[in-house]
From TrEMBL, chains A, B:
EC number in record: 6.1.1.21
Gene Ontology biological-process annotations: histidyl-tRNA aminoacylation; mitochondrial translation
Subcellular localization(s) per the UniProt record: Cytoplasm
PANTHER family: HISTIDINE--TRNA LIGASE, HISTIDYL-TRNA SYNTHETASE
Stretches assigned to the Aminoacyl-transfer RNA synthetases class-II family profile domain: 70-442
Top EC class, one word: ligase
Native organism: Rhodotorula paludigena
Transmembrane segments annotated in the record for this chain: none
Keywords assigned by UniProt, alphabetized: Aminoacyl-tRNA synthetase, ATP-binding, Cytoplasm, Ligase, Nucleotide-binding, Protein biosynthesis
Catalytic reaction equation(s): tRNA(His) + L-histidine + ATP = L-histidyl-tRNA(His) + AMP + diphosphate + H(+)
Protein name: histidine--tRNA ligase
Record's keyword annotation contains RNA-binding: no
Biased composition (Pro residues): 356-367
Stretches assigned to the WHEP-TRS domain: 3-59
């Protein structure tokens, strides 16, 4: 039975549901249904506390028992999955020789200010309690750039990853899973190297990770800022419109060309013919043969920037071929990515599971989606943040990409405060949408049913078949722990048999080690495999006491 | 050569050194030395920037490039060690079937308020930017209690660990390594079980972890609040003085008995004879035989609380014997622990390396140490926080214990807002001083020299013995990554041989795989073991190209 505190927490939640429905102008009957549930909860609370069910439901609680808005607790079964995901990802980072750093959760306010454009209003500040003014980190890119600016001469070349929480005072569309505290997972290679080698490794590593996570089929869209810039120039886009037109192109994965063209011409004042020339290019997608094709395009190759980009792409494809991941890559001239600071290749991984719904033309009355709103903001003033465009908002689940990144050769220079080569540390990186990957993999686990809800990987349950035998169970458990075998037993002097089996079933523990008075006297012990093909009444194995640990280690594949 | 930004960072640091020396009234010549270093840094900066070296060193920098006061970056080699420590600890938590949870880095302000006594002033608040008032978490205990109060019926029994950063606006004695952001590592068993079983497991697990970390010899001091309460009662301490006298006893590891007696009688108004009776008891230390001895003590056994405590201890010792860790435990009647909320066993692990210096009587003029100041605050008003007493300040390095904890059966009830059994979730736990353990193990690694400074565990460096052979190196690296072998190569088309060996030596990479034109033609490849007994000029192995991966896997023990 729920406690008063739990009821209070549920009342708060249910109140939010009701308010949300009202705000969304939901059907009256839907609202009424949820109001009734709220009433029931309040009545249940009143029964426990003896207090009358009041309108706010507050009298009974000493304080509101909840987490702050936009944050949540991670429960054990979520953590179990999250840790397995992080472990798989970091194992691959480390295969590639990456190191990790950790930076403080808050930075001096002035380090963050001026880095995120209009989104600076979403930064959490710490209260001025005397001393320095600080803010919670908004992403991991700016702290990394700050770290490099401070320690660049110690790390002229660094391949680093960082998995950590970041903070944004977004008005969360909570029903969409948009959070104010969420994880980012960044991998970056900083330093001067021969061309395209780090870029190719970022892409190969992304394939390795997405394959290891078994998220299903995926494609990495690839483009190059210099090709885009050249393309816009030869199509006749005025220099000062290149960014805003690029940002319009970036919406082609969510909007049909007609809408994007309209934005270019009507909103942004681009000549219709120029837009049409762009339209011819940005519909192009393909593999290395597209690079060759564009290299034959006399108009494009008249532009120096485009030629540089195409040379990069040709070299990159050569390396991707060696890494065996060309088939995952789609050279896609419509990929633009929202951010100003990219200077070379850009890429974005999409999966079937994470792909956005087919583009629809919004009617004038339609409420823009958060992604659209975001894109609009970006269109006005692109922000300085790798993860802030709609494609890689870690906190929005079910739309967009699972990883994205690119080359940004100028960002660190902004922090080191120096112009020219001295302050310049070229970087290329990839950011994995770990919150989204978590949601995809949780859904998959729930559909498959076999892992969902599991919170740990206990291998052996030490149970008694009679008379408690607590001390014997403790001895066995200690022996198993010493041998590195994950083991538990019931903290009862005389546990009941069904209760013990209940734990085994619930936790799906693969082996039950059974101690019984008869076998104890004989110096033997019994193992009952609980899960998998060995399961079944007739599969108990009786063995000498001293054979237990070696037997289990062999069964568990650790010999 | 250092950049202007780096020089600025060093100038800020050096400025702090100088200010600290001045504040500490250090010898003039020591101050002068550091002032000169500061001057040199400023001159170096002036050379780069062309700006005159000004008093504050600020003009040249666009902003101060540093982390916030009391926080720091963790560099790659520190992270490498930190991750290995955390992995060893969590592996053992998981052996015991523990799950983990994660809570937000900030909580509603009202959740934290009123939980930490006078130390509430050290809580970081977030700025009121509209919406809820929030604070950064101060420890992991209160968020866990809040989690249990919200989700208790889902987790009536839970064995959980949590490793995460906490935040305290302490005036940091930075030179002592006292930080405002630091890690805590808590393991707790919550729920109703048969007596002393979870308590024994906490102690066994603590031994297992400290042994696995190889921190050298250690002792776990053990006592029981009910015994202490009984002891104070039979000695004649008035009910209302028990807490404050207990807090005086707790200083016996840092102060001689005479000083503690003085505090009891002069400061706290205890009768001298009562103090002397206490003195007879608190000098007792021993093993299970001390439990038997006290059970013969007619004065003590007249007290119900003492008898309950002694019965617990007898049962606990029986279980500790089964777990084979009695020899690590010292039943020590002088251990009191600072916190109000303990209700049963209390314990604290000390190592030779972490033991405090021998107690000295401070002269009246002596400046109190932070630990003493803390103890004084506690003496006045004990705070509601497992880790806040001087013995387990995670942020103070070089003094005190490496782990501490105890049983606290009433804390969760404070959050669930319910009296009696419904809101009561008994808990027992242990908190590891991971920052201190890190410092101890870093020092050890530096002394041994073999691991210090290493930031990753790359196993193979793929190098070219001639003509670059970039593509061949990439192919080999990809093959190794696919086989789960940690591999790197130089991101250069034509790397120089000495440069490649430099990396191998610096990173202490155990195997160099060498490709050369001649062997490529023959279809062979060469491996040169770089570290360990196989090292040496004559130990190169030439093998068929396809034998490389199996050969390496066998050498790396992964067959």
């Amino acid at each position: 039975m729920a406690t008063a505190a739990e009821l209070n927490a549920r009342i708060v939640e249910q109140g939010n549901v009701v308010r949300k429905l009202k705000a969304d102008k939901a059907a009256a009957e839907d609202i009424q249904k949820e109001v009734l549930s709220l009433k029931e909860l309040k009545d249940a609370l009143a029964k426990i506390t003896g207090a009358p069910s009041d309108a706010k439901g507050k009298k009974a609680a000493k304080f509101t028992l909840k987490t702050a808005k936009g944050t949540k607790d991670w429960h054990p079964s979520d953590m179990y999955l999250r840790q397995r995901i992080f472990r798989k990802i970091t194992d691959i980072f480390e295969l590639h020789g990456a190191v990790t750093i950790d930076t403080p959760v808050f930075e001096l306010k002035e380090i963050l200010s001026g880095k995120y454009g209009e989104d600076s209003k979403l930064i959490y500040d710490l209260q001025d309690q005397g001393g320095e003014l600080c803010s919670l980190r908004y992403d991991l890119t700016v702290p990394f750039a700050r770290f490099l600016a401070m320690n660049g001469s110690q790390y002229p070349n660094i391949k680093r990853y960082h998995i950590a929480k970041v903070y944004r005072r977004d008005q969360p569309a909570m029903s969409k899973g948009r959070m104010r505290e969420f994880y980012q997972c960044d991998f970056d290679i900083a330093g001067v190297y021969d061309p395209m080698l780090p870029d190719a490794e970022c892409l190969s590593l992304t394939c390795e990770i997405l394959e290891a996570l078994e998220i299903g089929d995926f494609t990495i869209k690839l483009n190059h800022r210099k090709i885009l810039d050249g393309l816009f120039a030869v199509c006749g886009v005025p220099e000062d419109k290149i960014r805003t037109i690029s940002s319009a192109v970036d919406k082609l994965d969510k909007l049909p060309w007609a809408d994007v063209r309209k934005e270019m011409t009507e909103e942004k004042g681009l000549d219709g013919e120029v837009a049409d020339r762009i339209g011819e290019y940005v519909k192009l997608k393909g593999g290395p043969e597209l690079v060759d094709q564009l290299k034959q395009d006399a108009r494009l190759t008249a532009n120096k920037s485009a030629v540089e980009g195409l040379d990069d792409m040709a070299l990159l494809y050569k390396y991707l071929d060696i890494y065996g991941c060309v088939n995952r890559i789609s050279f896609d001239l419509s990929l633009a990515r929202g951010l100003d600071y990219y200077t070379g290749v850009i890429y974005e991984a999409v999966t079937e599971a994470s792909a956005p719904p087919a583009p629809v033309a919004p009617s004038p009355e339609a409420v823009p989606t958060p992604a659209q709103k975001k894109a609009d903001v970006k269109g006005k003033k692109p922000a300085l943040n790798a993860d802030e465009d709609a494609e890689l908002d870690e906190s929005t689940v079910g739309v967009g990409s699972v990883a994205a990144g690119g080359r940004y050769d100028e960002l660190v220079g902004m922090f080191s405060g120096e112009k020219g080569a001295a302050g310049k540390i070229p970087c290329v990186g990839i950011s994995f949408g770990v919150e989204r990957l978590f949601s995809l993999l949780l859904k998959k686990a729930q559909e498959q049913g076999d892992q969902a809800g599991r919170a740990k990987a206990t291998e052996v349950y030490v149970m008694s078949l009679g008379d408690g035998l607590l001390e014997e169970r403790m001895k066995v458990a200690k022996e198993l722990w010493s041998a590195g075998i994950k083991a538990e037993f019931m903290y009862k002097a005389k546990p009941k048999l069904p209760k013990q089996f209940e734990v085994i079933d619930k936790e799906r523990i693969p082996y039950a080690v059974q101690v019984s008075p008869g076998e104890l006297a004989k110096g033997t012990i019994r193992v009952k495999p609980q899960v998998g093909k060995e399961q079944g009444a007739g599969n108990d194995v009786e063995m000498k006491r001293e054979e237990l640990v070696p037997w289990l280690l062999e069964k568990l594949g650790r010999k």
